[in-house]
Amino acid sequence: MTESERIQEFEEFLARYNRAFYDRDLVALRALYVPDVEVPYFDNHADGDSTELETHLEKVATFFETGDITPLLVENVRAFVHGDAACVVATVRYSAEPVPGVRASFFLERHATAWRIRHIHFSQDPNESSP
Fold first, then answer.
1. Residue 83: beta bridge partners?
2. For residue 64, what pLDDT is reported?
3. pLDDT at 131
C-alpha cells in the first residue's frame, strides 16, 4: 500500500466517523469503536471526557438530542501504522469557526479487517488564536 493509499484509507475512516455525527447515528458510531468497554475519550468541550465507551456514547446521545452539529473541515491527515495499531492525527476545523483548529488524535486497532477506535483526543490548537 502506498502512502497516499494509506492516507486515503484513514481519511475515509474519519469521514465515516464524521458522517455518524452528521446523521446523528449512534449505531454507526458505536460500530467504529473497539468491542470492549475501555475507550478513553478526551474532548475539547467541557464535560465531554470519558473513560468507558458506554459513558461516552451516553454523552453523544444527549448531544444528538440537543446539540448543533457543524460541518467539519479535516486537514493534514497523517497516519502511522505498526501491525494492527495505527495513530491517525489531523487538524479539524469547524466550518462556522475555523480558527483555532482542533488537533485530533485517534488511536486505532485492527479487529479482523476493520479499524476500530481505542482512544480519541481532541484539543484546541494553542498555536492559533481566535479571530
1. none
2. 96
3. 66
Three-state SS for the chain is CCHHHHHHHHHHHHHHHHHHHHCCCHHHHHCCECCCCEEEEECCCCCCCEEEHHHHHHHHHHHHHHCCCCCEEEEEEEEEEECCEEEEEEEEEECCEEEEEEEEEEEEEEECCEEEEEEEEEEECCCCCCC
Note the maximum CA span of the chain: 45
Distance CA 17, CA 19 (A): 5
The ranges assigned to domains in the chain are 3-124
pTM of the entire structure?
A: 0.93
Please identify, in words, the CATH class of the domain defined by 3-124: alpha beta
Average model confidence (pLDDT) for the chain? 95
